[in-house]
Amino acid sequence: MDNEIQLISDDDGLMVMGRAADVDRFLVSEGLSPSQDLGSHWLKSVFDAGAAVAQAGSELAENSGRWVKLTPKSAQLVRKYGLRESSKTGLGTGVLKGQKGQIKGFVEFAKAPRSLMTNPTALANAAKLMSQVAMQQSMEEISDYLATIDAKVDDVLRAQKDTVLSRMIGVGFVIDESMTIREKRGRVDEIMWSKVQDAPTAIAETQVYALRQLDAIADRMERQSKIGDLATAVREAEAPVREWLVVLARCFQLQDAIAVLELDRVQDASPDELDAHRLGLKAARQDRRDLISRSTERLVARMNAVAGRANAKVLLHPAKSPAVVQSSNQVAIGVHDFHERLGIESGGWSSDARRWADAAAEVRDKALETGAKGVDAARSRGKVTLDRAGSATGRLAVGIAERARRLRGGEPGGNE
Question: Superkingdom, according to UniProt (predicted)?
């Protein structure tokens, strides 16, 4: 039928397939941009055997496939068309049909002979391809993140003398090389896989090491009792935290690359297990993300606690306390940016440094309130008594209150 397109959705994106003109028309009409062209080889990777392609005939050869990252807007589109979700694969699928240059909001399921939904193997391959595209986009975003913070992960790793991190450099080179070969060959054979199959161990060791380093940084800050030492410790923590986040980002990037290669290998060696393996990798990826999220959120919470200690002493340390809070906020902002690139939701973490004027104004207001009560008592008793301040903060409050009373017209006070 004219203007038929197929939609497949998972938790990461939406795949739109059909004749190129129909796909483009649909994406424009729904305002879905940008989208990623799956490339000329996408059809071969989706359909399991040449017979499946031959059965579809020349119409299938004309098809185009584009992938759209699942955003709130594209997720709303999935709900709009009510794609049917499979409990087995977790995919939402449907076929939209129309005529005379239009795509109508009419969804059918697995009726057309050339539909992907009639071929379980092809559907599993499509799901695998979607997972790979989503992970590759995540890898590109991490590369952008590393470029944005102007840090080369290899430089960070070489600066460390630990054996675990040294292994990370070599593993990264091998994985990057394998991804390049995969792009040229379109598959991962046994020889390619043998080069990278032990890499996950080295990556996991590095990830754990980096998380422990972040905990150690927070421990050192929490041990500081003097505000001056605390300010120094927090300031010196900014660069190491950023570097260990770089290491974690690279770990996540390489783990995604391994998963992309692994899916190709399973498709080639054990196609019947492809869908189950994809779901397993998806669950493992989320577990890694949750682990990183918990650890980095704990770091920010501890940094905020340190900032709270500094804020409480802002009157006694008008220069050092705001510096502590500012450094703490820089760490929180860095973690938030890091989370965005890994697809982790972050809350509003930044603590606003209290300026000296704000803190002084608070003391002034409290002093004026106390002074007003004293004036009322003096009028009833014939005198006013001000206790001598027992601390620097107390003396400041009295001074502000006295000056404020003079400005208000010289109301009686204290020993005047």
Answer: Bacteria
